[in-house]
Amino acid sequence: MDYISTTLGNLVHQTAFFSLTWGNLIMIAVACFFLYLAIRRGFEPLLLVPIAFGMLLVNIYPDIMLHAEDSANGTGGLLYYFFKLDEWAILPSLIFLGVGAMTDFGPLIANPKSFLLGAAAQFGIFAAYLGAMALGFSDKAAAAISIIGGADGPTSIFLAGKLQQTAIMGPIAVAAYSYMSLVPIIQPPIMKLLTTEKERMIKMEQLRPVSKLERILFPIIVTIVVCVILPTTAPLVGMLMLGNLFRESGVVRQLTDTASNALMYIVVILLGTSVGATTSAEAFLNWNTIKIVILGLIAFAFGTAAGVLFGKLMCVATHGKVNPLIGSAGVSAVPMAARVSQKVGAESDPTNFLLMHAMGPNVAGVIGTAVAAGTFMAIFGVM
Description:
Blueprint: H1 2-13, H2 22-39, H3 45-60, H4 78-87, H5 90-102, H6 106-110, H7 114-120, H8 123-134, H9 139-146, H10 153-162, H11 169-181, H12 183-194, H13 197-200, H14 212-229, H15 234-249, H16 253-276, H17 281-284, H18 287-317, H19 336-348, H20 355-379
Helix pairs in contact: 2-3, 3-11, 3-16, 4-16, 5-10, 5-15, 5-16, 7-18, 7-20, 8-9, 8-18, 9-10, 10-11, 10-20, 11-18, 12-18, 12-19, 14-15, 15-16, 19-20
């Protein structure tokens, strides 16, 4: 009888009930809320589902992220090895390869002025950098935090790893991916506040056809120009353009399919769960995390506003030929931000089709955020 009671007692004490803290319970509730947003509300489920589930796992079983050196048998936790791929910038670079293979750069090629809108939306990054410095973060930590303003999760992870800010990589990545998912909620009020009904109803001229030669040359030329000026952007810009060259060359269909489908989704699973697993209660529930989340929201709002305001300036300069709404797509959330531009425009005029026009600034924003990350790396002498 003693044997049975001892065995049952050991089994009970092996459950997570005796180790869960209030912080763990809070993070489990947050994970469930994220799952609700992803599954019920459809907010970027490909990102939020693995992130939320990683968050759920680590707060029930913290050893799933146990460092190999801290493990009795030296093997470490499962998601620890996934996270090492984030730290080594492997997964973010592969995400860019997939994005390039999935994305049509034609609207940007057809309307090069879109680069200006993508650049304007990066204002939020530098605003967040100054804000983070003012709140007491180190210069490198401030730079890593600021990339949240571009709503670009892979670049945020990439820069945090390169600047050796792994201690805050989790909050940075979760904030960046959360704001990417919440683009349909955050952006429309800002867009409507800064534009008039008349501006939102502006119909833009159809984009010119882009030749196959232009599509092939574009990723090659961008790689040469950007990577010669900022070589540190090669892992991101290079992979983005390689994926697009796969797509546009037409001679490596198998590579295009793999990069944009199987490989992309495998990487999303690994990256999402490992990012979510950095949000243990001990690491996440602190003032620095709250500051990072608030700074990220401010930066994203500033970036959206800057893009719309520059769009208004282009509207005036072109005598009403540019709808300012497409400026909001200058953040890096591809293609969600472009879809939001289309949605807000269609609310004012259902016959207004802005999606392809908004894709130009959207793609430019991806390149712009990578360039901003490369600029910070160059400033701090990181290779």
